[in-house]
Give the backbone structure.
Amino acid sequence: MSERKTEGKDHMEDGDEDLEDPDLKVILLGDSAVGKSKLVERYLMDEYNPRQLSTFALTLFRKNAKLDDGVEVKVDFWDTAGQERFSSMHPSYYYRAHACIMVFDVTRKATYKNLSDWYGELRQYSESIPCLLIANKIDVDYQVTKKSFKFAQQHDLPFFFVSAADGTNVVKAFDEAVKAGMEFKKNGGDFVDEALSLLEGK
């Protein structure tokens, strides 16, 4: 498995902060220690090479994902790298994102209650990107899968019970996020981001 780089620029390869633009940007949201990084690593397994982007204080995971039609796309998964401790993310984290994976820990009620805050911030910066909800750590007690979590229903979000520990539904959920992100991009993306790009002359 690729060595994880967690010490900032000293442990980065030249050019890590100047990667070629991805075809897709997927962001992860949720409280600290809900398992976001472990979920990404479980999804990517041996194929990933995480890079610590010190400029943004986040971790970038890149994967070449294969769509249903066999087309391969470069996907960047943005992980918060602990910044969520401050209860909000920098607006640049959301910039030009195509999909969001929001995560809570089924063993900690507070992480579920805080979803409304994360979702509110997401919609403040990314009005219309597809978002799906993951209930992580179901391996602690599989009986939790019999419970109903209304947040997903209230906001019409695809919902997955997953376990980063044993892999349950992880690939399925991430593949769904990639698929939804590509569909979103194909249909024109987020108007707010496009308007900002035009204003900035990009």
Summary: Strands lie at 24-29, 51-53, 58-66, 72-79, 99-105, 131-136, 159-161. Confidence is low (pLDDT under 50) at residues 1-16. DSSP finds seven helices and seven strands in the chain. The longest strand covers residues 58-66.
